[in-house]
Amino acid sequence: MAKGEPVIVVRGLANSFGEQFVHQDLDLEVRRGEILGVVGGSGTGKSVLMRSIIGLQQPVAGEIEVFGEAITSMTAKEALNARRRSGVLFQGGALFSTLTVAENVEVPLREFYGHLGEGLLDEIAAYKVAMTGLPPEAGPKYPSELSGGMRKRAGLARALALDPELLFLDEPTAGLDPIGAANFDGLIKSLKETLGLTVFLITHDLDTLYAICDRIAVLADKQVVAIGTIPELLALDHPWIQEYFNGPRGRVAADAADRNARAQVQDKAG
Ligand SMILES: Nc1ncnc2c1ncn2[C@@H]1O[C@H](COP(=O)(O)OP(=O)(O)OP(=O)(O)O)[C@@H](O)[C@H]1O
């Protein structure tokens, strides 16, 4: 698959819980090699959308293709293969509290590559831990012994365990201080570039959108009401989009992004 081709295609998706429809006739395409930011007010169905795409939520209507295969009609073998090609960082990290960081990273490794033997599994886990910027001492620690930012990195190490092509992140910077959040953004961007990842990133963090997202999908009224770059979204007169990007926080984030871009140009020139 070439860069820019769709890796995820969602058509006519509907999800409901009893009488309550969260999505209706929702369409979305995620292109290979992009970081797609997914935004929307609380309860607009961002996490449910992610869960549908990774096969944890059974839609009531619509089609979802991942890597060109319809997920609803996949054989068990195809579903396993698709799962191997995707990594997920759930809100809060969702680490197993009774396992160390290294053991958490080894959970998916054991499932798919259990035959590799203890020594090699430990080495791969240590490599994944290092990849996310954690010190080696973090490997034998339990999640409760880590800071919130370190737990996110540990969750990311587990999401990267199987060398995925597609990474799902649900509010990765929530609860981090601004410096920790900016560092995490930088980590995601550099991993995306080094590993050639496609990233589906749910966030409320405007700084993240400006700093690392190639395009942004906006969820409202049970659908993706707009998708595009920030300038493309700003040109639309959708009230939520205008309020979100042009409200006080949106403006602060835009100014900060502007200052960063100017500083980078000066750094390069100097
Ligand atoms: N398992 C479930 N059972 C019943 N309702 C659910 C379930 N999961 C989600 N919902 C409902 O679906 C809607 C969308 O939830 P979702 O978690 O996807 O929102 P979100 O956009 O990710 O919100 P937030 O930004 O607050 O995390 C909400 O009204 C929620 O209550």
UniProtKB/TrEMBL annotation:
Residues 8-246 form the ABC transporter domain. The keyword NAD does not apply. Pfam families: ABC_tran (PF00005). Keywords: ATP-binding, Nucleotide-binding, Transport. GO terms for molecular function: ATP binding. InterPro entries: AAA+_ATPase, ABC_transporter-like_ATP-bd, ABC_transporter-like_CS, P-loop_NTPase. CDD domains: ABC_Org_Solvent_Resistant. It comes from the Bacteria. This is ABC transporter ATP-binding protein. It comes from Sphingomonas naphthae. The lineage of its organism: Bacteria, Pseudomonadati, Pseudomonadota, Alphaproteobacteria, Sphingomonadales.
